[in-house]
Amino acid sequence: MTNSLFPYGRRRHVDPVPAADALVADDLTVGYPGSLRPAVKQVCLRVPTGTRVALVGPNGAGKSSLLKAIAGLLPVSGGTLRVFGHAVGACRCCLAYLPQREEIDWRFPISVERLVLTGRYVHLGWLHWPKARDYQITRAVMERLGLSDLADRQIGRLSGGQQQRVLVARALAQGADLLLLDEPLNAVDANTRAALHNVFQDLHRQGKTVLVATHDLGRLANEFDAAVYLSDGRQVPPPEGAFAGLSVGKECAWTG
Prior knowledge:
Blueprint: E1 23-30, E2 40-47, E3 52-56, H1 63-70, E4 76-83, E5 86-87, E6 95-98, H2 112-117, H3 132-144, H4 160-174, E7 178-182, H5 190-205, E8 209-214, H6 220-223, E9 226-231, E10 234-236
Parallel strand pairs: 3-8, 3-9, 6-7, 7-8
Antiparallel strand pairs: 1-2, 1-4, 4-5, 9-10
Helix pairs in contact: 3-4, 4-5
């Protein structure tokens, strides 16, 4: 498994600052260790709590790197980044990260239920066993995503669509207020797309904040409140006639 699957521990967790935006980035620059070329360059945006924002751009545009920086998986090398008013990593229980399916080692010997259950570990801390409530939450989100019959199946024996549902279920089990989803609808079947779309609609009604990297330009206006366009790691204006929302200016003003 990748390390991103197991952000254990409640150490240093603090509650969100009241009325704070879910995310504020100012001149944010992010790079991979050992690389001289930044993956994200001087990005500036503000994501109000309860909004749905799409990150749009071609492969290599910096979408995944930006999500990883927000999740605390890549270091910030310039500018500032605040999550619910705090530095990255402070509100551990409030943020859930869903990586691309290709980043997971699906040969790992773990069942569907056990993988979804790891979404609860951030609330437990080290050396604490899941309690009855953790299992109840896990099984509820599995049923919601049509995974109950697959509870004991090894994750490598799932179809691509089922694997994507499992990753989303794990993120939902965490109960986070900010969800970072990296291409959640990429290469999934129609049934999985419909199921995930319903889940995302429910999250919006619950006041959750969702930041989604996506290539699906045709659904932006219907499924998101705003879109941020990236190219070569930089924030760029939307193409003429394209759906927009967040200002690309340094003032980080919300215009959606």
